[in-house]
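Long-time lurker. I teach an intro course on protein structure, and each term I like to show students one example going from raw sequence to a predicted 3D structure in token notation. This year I'd like something fresh instead of my usual example. Would anyone be willing to generate the tokens for the chain below so I can use it in lecture? Attribution to the forum is fine with me.
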Amino acid sequence: MCVNGWFQQRCPLAYLGCTFSQKRFRPSSQEASVIFTEDLGCFQLRPTIPPVGSPYNSSGGPTLSLLPYEVLCHIASFLDSLSLSQLALVSRLTRQVCSSLLPVRGMVTLRWQRTSGPQGRVSWKAEQKVWHFSTAFSPVDNWCFRDVPSMSEHLRVCSYYERDSRLEQVKLPPLEQK
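-- Reply from a regular --
Happy to contribute to a lecture. Here you go:
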């Protein structure tokens, strides 16, 4: 809660409907921004530098699946836990690749189930053990500000900002003297 307005700064006129926002904070060691992934319910770092090559061939099909299994395992070994959890959702082959890394990089959590015992007593029982990858991203040692214009630059052109220019003089109340 203490970083509100640091990672992402919204237009002060958002309450009127302005959707402008800008990301202000980023990791200093890499060009990435922090985003929230609703499907996973977690924050993650998204690189802002475009990838060097495209994972698709000219026909639009993925070329990743054409690589040998061992090569895919080697590539996957360099990914962080969050990327591995996402890669496991791509295809059966990538799920097998990621599954091979579970004993080394995964974690086990217990899935609990509520049970009712005799005389209506409620208790919890570990239903099963579930393997998965963490949704945490690598630690960021230092943060820095992006080189973005001030919010006042946006307010100059914001359609929700109504200017009230007055040319007539405004009379101020007299000051009391002691």
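Some talking points for your students: The chain has a mean pLDDT of 80. The helical segments are 69-76, 81-87, 92-105, 151-157.
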